[in-house]
Structures are given as C-alpha cells and as structure tokens.
Amino acid sequence: MNIIVSAAPDESDASIIDAALADYNESTVGAADRLALSVIVRDDAGVICAGVNGQTAWGWLYVQRLWVGDSLRGQGMAGKMLSAAEDEARSRGCIGAYIDTFNPAALSAYQRQGYVEYGRMEQFVAGRDRIFLQKRWA
Q1: Which end of the chain is more exposed for a tag (fewer CB within 10 A), N or C?
Q2: Which H helix or E strand runs over 6?
Q3: Are 81 and 53 in contact (CB under 8 A)?
C-alpha cells in the first residue's frame, strides 16, 4: 500500500474517490438525487452582482456559497436570494436547508431568515468562529 498526499491530485483519481463515496452513501441511505442550484442577480448591464451556489441532495438544500457585491450590501439581497433558493428547494421536495459562515454580518442575515445554529468551531480563523446553521420548513 502506498499513501500519497497531493496538493494537485489527478482529476480522474479525485473522481474515483467521489464516485466511490457517493455509491457507498447511496447504498446505505438511498439515492441523493443531487442537483445543482444557483440564484444569480444581474444588474441592468448583465453583470453579476450577487449570487448563491449550492445543491439539493437527500431532501436538503446545501447553500455552499452566498455572495453579495458591495453595491447591494445592506439591502436585504441575501434574504431575497435565500428565499428564492428555498422556494426552488421546496419545489424539489426538500425539508430544509443548511449553511455555514464565519462572517458576523452573514450570520445575522441568516438568522433573520430563520436559520438556527446547530454547531460551532471556535476560533476558526482570524478570531472568528465558524457557525453551522439550519432551517427546517417540513
């Protein structure tokens, strides 16, 4: 057996690991029905100024990334995008959503949307905690 550590793994090797784990998980808990979900906000010129990237799987929306550009911060855009993503997740049969952050402003925005903390990594980076939140609607 050889254990190899790499900062630049071969893409086919990474795909084999991903597929094997997906197969194992699905054999023990059922099909993930994994589907990407993005919410894009463009200005009148078509430039992306905010967005959400995530996925739905096993009946949950996972919000992987949420970004609001400077011109839209403080205007409730995060909440509007989360609502749009949650509506789509509901239409896919999801029962809830989860997200994590180490940004205090983002934490407040998520809590205003009804997300509640279920875990915390203290002193994650730069004196900030990483906070894990969820929201159930079913």
Answers
A1: N
A2: none
A3: no
Q: From CA 53, how far away is CA 37, in angstroms rounded?
A: 6
Three-class SS state of 124: strand
Nearest to 37 by CA among 50, 53, 48: 53
| Pairwise CA distance, residues 114 & 98, whole Å | 11
How many independent structural domains does the chain possess? Answer: 1
Please list the residues that pair with 97 across neighbouring strands: 61, 135
The CA distance from 94 to 90, in Å, is: 5
Q: Has residue 95 been placed in a domain?
A: yes
In a domain, 75, yes or no: yes
pLDDT of amino acid 101: 98
pLDDT band at 50 (very low <50, low <70, confident <90, very high): very high
- Residue 60 inside a domain? The answer is yes
Do the domain assignments include residue 127?
yes
Task: Look up residue 105 and give its amino acid.
Answer: A
pLDDT band of 138, cuts 50, 70, 90: confident
Q: What's the CATH code of the domain at 78?
A: 3.40.630.30
